[in-house]
């Protein structure tokens, strides 16, 4: 037991959100101000991120001062409509696995994993293709596409590693929620 006063409301809070006008806005609509930072980097260089923080105090309703512990950039993209996907790069179907998927903040969010050759340095392309021709009332069709740009594994490859990334696709403009 410590005699020091601790204003921390919650330790180890993990949330995803956007950086808007120099502020972190969580997918739940809360605003986080960085009062202390215990990690390297500049969160304001990101568009979307996952943060791990201690919530120090609520300064007003839904606005919190935090101690930033960790930050991870999230790739934020718009989905590509199938009818306008004319670039062949977008439609390649190299192996990719979805390890986690959820909808929040107007985004389809996911953690994807794919095999790469160790030290290849090749940048991969991930897209969510929206089949706009298949849309019916309340039903939507999406396909995740991955282009490894030739960074494919062969039987001779011994340096297999798995790469992973968080990626968010903004779909709020496509999905019509009940009013």
What can you tell me about this protein's structure?
The protein has 179 residues and is an all-beta fold. Helix content is 0%, strand content 52%. It contains no helices and 12 strands. It has a 5-stranded mixed beta barrel with strand order 1-2-3-5-4. Strand 1 (10-20) and strand 2 form a beta hairpin. The protein is flat and about 60 Å long.
Poorly predicted runs of 5 or more residues: none
**What is the molecular shape?**
flat
- Helix fraction, binned, reads under 10%
Number of helices: 0
Distance between the termini: 51 Å
Which key features would you list for this structure?
single chain; 179 residues; mainly beta; five-stranded mixed beta barrel; four-stranded mixed sheet; flat
